[in-house]
Amino acid sequence: MTDAERAARLRTANLLGALALEVTQRAEQSAKRHPNETLSSSAALNVIGFYDGCSNNTLAQALGLSHTATVRLVDKLEAAGLVTSETGTDRRSVALKLTTSGRERARDIVAERCRQICDVLDMLPEADLQHLERITETLLRGMVDAAGDADHICRLCDETVCVPDRCPVHGRAMVLKATDRV
Predict the structure, then answer these.
(1) Which pTM was predicted?
(2) Domain with 84 in it: what CATH number?
(3) What DSSP assignment string belongs to the chain?
(4) What SMART domains does this protein's entry cite (predicted)?
């Protein structure tokens, strides 16, 4: 790699980093109804909605949180009337479910996140959007190192617009799962 190529690559990395931070900040801010609301609580509602009846362990893995932090988060969501926990298949586990308010809040979070990101995408012409979709799918596919990565990467995704059988992340996770790279 020449010095000019290295400089161009570093500039692209810097631009991508700045874009990623700004898009993330806009999406995170849109998910909050009040300053104390966290991205983890928003993601938790989405994950529980997708995996109705999931355990604290499944939720912890998807969010990248410790078991203790996940239990505290679930307690807060229950106190807010967004989640219920019932006895799981094993007496030591719980099955997490969204309340009606929790389902509505999860839908609102995902819709607002998509709206914020679409506002950014609207700055691009259609041809560039098609290139960006292809590039984004390639990058996401390459970021999946293990089957379990899919739940974490897609924790705030709208599963109605990126269904698992067309999702590059879930597709790669299924390939890894089939080859026992869990």
Answers:
(1) 0.85
(2) 1.10.10.10
(3) --HHHHHHHHHHHHHHHHHHHHHHHHHHHHH-SSTT--HHHHHHHHHHHHTTTB-HHHHHHHHT--HHHHHHHHHHHHHTTSEEEEE-SSTT-EEEEE-HHHHHHHHHHHHHHHHHHHHHHTTS-HHHHHHHHHHHHHHHHHT--STTHHHHHTTT--TTTS-GGG-HHHHHHHHHHHTT--
(4) HTH_MARR (SM00347)
Q: Which domain holds residue 160?
A: 124-182
Q: What is the pLDDT of residue 179?
A: 86
Low-confidence ranges of the chain (pLDDT < 70): 34-36, 181-182
Query: pLDDT (tens digit, 9 = 90+) per residue, 135-177?
Result: 999 999 999 999 889 999 999 999 888 887 889 999 999 999 8
Check whether residue 115 and residue 161 sit in a common domain: no
